Amino acid sequence: MLLDVLGAVLLALGLMLATIGLYGLLRMRDINHQLHPAGLVTGPAVILVLVACVATGSAEIITSAVLVILFVLITSPLSTHAIAQAARRRPRRDR
Amino acid sequence: MPDLVLDLAAGWATLLLFGGGLLLLRASDTLHRVLALDVLVAIVIMLLTILSYLRDVSYYIDAALALALLALTSTLVAARYVTRGGPF
């Protein structure tokens, strides 16, 4: 019962973060401003939804989810950094 | 978790997918499109995870892992393409 509540809260929190991030993405126009809410959606929102796996109580799902969490922890800052670097280094005519 | 919560979460994530599509349509630039696709992949990962909770099967999260791998590679290559005019 307690785990159910915990899972539902984590799921709702993750989806709320994703909604806020998407609103920010739609609101801002500059790429350097957009990177901030995009990092919110690709990092913490996904991780919160994945952490909600504790409520399922299934060993297979939890193992896979932990793998995906570790992977997302590494790759989400990497891809955001790659986009920021490209925005900084691209030729002047593209801006 | 109760099925009602998971159904609501899946519906909400689908709505977020529409928001991501709107973001992709509004993109004016290659980098904006790369960013929009990155966000869309994150939302699809969330959707696959919720689907996995709903069906109580772990395969969908494995598919999400493969998708995250592909998204990382494609984002890095596309960012390199914007900087240097080619993928290498």
Description:
The complex is a heterodimer of chains A (95) and B (88). Chain A is built from three helices and no strands. By secondary structure, chain A is an all-alpha fold. Chain A has one domain: Helix Hairpins. The mean pLDDT of chain A is 89. With 88 residues, chain B is mainly alpha-helical. Chain B has one domain. Chain B is 86% helix and 0% strand. Chain B contains three helices and no strands. Chain B is elongated, with a radius of gyration of 15 Å. The mean pLDDT of chain B is 89. Chains A and B meet through α1, α2 and α3 of A and α1, α2 and α3 of B.
What topology does this entry show?
The complex is a heterodimer of chains A (95) and B (88).
Chain A: H1 2-27, H2 31-51, H3 59-89
Helix pairs in contact in A: 1-2, 2-3
Chain B: H1 3-26, H2 30-55, H3 59-84
Helix pairs in contact in B: 1-2, 2-3
Short structural description:
The complex is a heterodimer of chains A (95) and B (88). Chain A is an all-alpha fold and 95 residues long. Chain A has a single domain (2-94), classed as Helix Hairpins (Orthogonal Bundle).
What do the pLDDT scores of chain B average to? Answer: 89
Helix vs. strand class of chain B: mainly alpha
- Poorly predicted regions of chain A are none
Instruction: Characterize the largest beta sheet of chain A: strand count, sense, and whether it forms a barrel.
Output: none
Number of helices of chain A: 3
Report the strand count of chain B.
Answer: 0
Helix/strand-derived category of chain A reads mainly alpha
The count of domains of chain A is 1
How big is the Rg of chain B?
A: 15 Å
Which spans of chain B have pLDDT < 50 for at least 5 consecutive residues?
none
In the residues of chain B, how many domains can be counted? 1
Give the termini separation of chain A: 53 Å
Number of helices of chain B: 3
**Overall pLDDT of chain A:** 89
Rough outline of chain A: elongated
The percent range for strand residues of chain A is under 5%
Largest interface: A-B, 50 and 48 residues
C-alpha termini separation of chain B = 47 Å
Instruction: Please summarize the sheet with the most strands of chain B.
Output: none
What is the ordering of alpha helices and beta strands of chain B?
HHH
Helix content of chain A: over 70%
